[in-house]
Amino acid sequence: MNEMQKTMRYGGVALALMLLAFLTRPSVPRPDAFFDKGEPFYPNFTDPNTATSLEVIDYDEETGTAIPFKVQFKGGKWTIPSHHDYPADGKDRLAKTAASVIGVTKDDIRSDNVADHEKCGVIDPLDDEATSIKGRGKRVTIRGANDEVLADFIIGKEVEGSQGYRFVRIPGQKRVYAAKIDVDISTKFSDWIEADLLKASKDEFDQVVLRDYSVDERTGIVRQRDVLTLKKKDGVWTADKMRADQEVDGTKMNEILKTLDDLKIVGVRPKPAGLSESLSRISGGVELTGEDLASLRSKGYFFSTNGQLLSNEGEVNALTEDGVEYTLRFGEVVYGTGEAVSAGTGEDGKATGPAENRYLFITTAFKEKLFPEPEKPKNMEFQSKPDSLWTAEDRANKALQDAHDEWQQKIDKGKERSESLNRRFARWYYVIPSESFDKLNLTRKELVVKKKDD
After folding, report:
1. pLDDT tens digits, residue range 156-185?
2. Which of 209, 259, 286, 414 could form a disulfide with 278 if both were Cys (CB 3.0 to 4.6 A apart)?
3. Would you kindly state where each structural domain of the chain is located, as residue ranges?
4. pTM of the model
5. Residue 427 and residue 434: Cα distance in Å, rounded?
6. Counting beta carbons within 10 angstroms of the beta carbon of residue 61, is it exposed (0 to 12), middle (13 to 18) or buried (19 or more)?
7. Contact (CB, 8 A) for 162 and 178
């Protein structure tokens, strides 16, 4: 083979290798595949005030079920439709949620392959056709007027090595993005409601009465076991019928007060409209229908022959220093978990599951008699005089008027507080943890103890 033939052969081999390399090289993404990189997902959603609903769908891999949760702006306020339109008072959480999704951008494109959805955790939790229960993301949908979609994301796993970034996909699309998004959107009912149920601090209470009784549901007989009255004076708690060598257990008393202060609810049930209307009235008494009575009995509440509302596991009266008395009546045990507890889902059937919660019925009253009306001025002539011309009588009358005004302000404030609370409590049976009930349901023997030797 001469030199020319060798050269041509080598050239042919080189050309073939170049052609092979060209044909097998990784495909270069087309420029239009990255046209939306860096753009906002929903550029038109800039004002959180245009949102009228927020829906979050989470997924429980253990049960293989989607967990929906929704808040909706209705009747001038945010409510939770799945929980009988209970007010969604977690305003800070609403604001934070809106802020976390407005302006989120498509920071990086990670995949156009459907097979990567599970690994990225962006499978739609509502996708019934997906075979895998793993890799389901959290779907967040915000709607505006006329049910217009303002934003709709499936938020997946954190992007490894990129703090604050998560995989994100738009429902119905294949593409997976990496986006910087600070999202902490809970599907727990308790995270969206007013955490302070009684709106009273433990230092406000200066009297607590524990009424230990039960009602035999079959016979209607009330078994009154004890009434323990605890009062605070100069920061020290004492009990009625307490001997000189006894004292109130400070640790347990503080636990009662702390439970009242921190009382949390884990569920709600609506009262019948007629009962709620009656309870929200300031005067006029309570008018009950057969439906009202059936509703009360199903939750463990009964009316005595003299018209007194009783509960099958006793009650607590807690009086604040400004004269507002809370009455907490403890009813039936609530069975189940999840929405069976928080919303009463499935209560038409037989109750099942753990008995870790209990019904609570709350009312308040203002005890005006605790604040006797002070003497009024004999005359009001001082009001038409410059104070430089006041006589001793005028100054005395001015002092009387100031004291009476202060008393009237205290009365008005106490009444308004009680009325406001009653309007809030009137619509609902609450569900509280049994742990809270146990901390409030103490006996005289547990609270009144022998003094410790100094």
Report:
1. 999 999 998 999 999 999 999 999 987 767
2. 286
3. 34-191, 202-450
4. 0.82
5. 22
6. exposed
7. yes
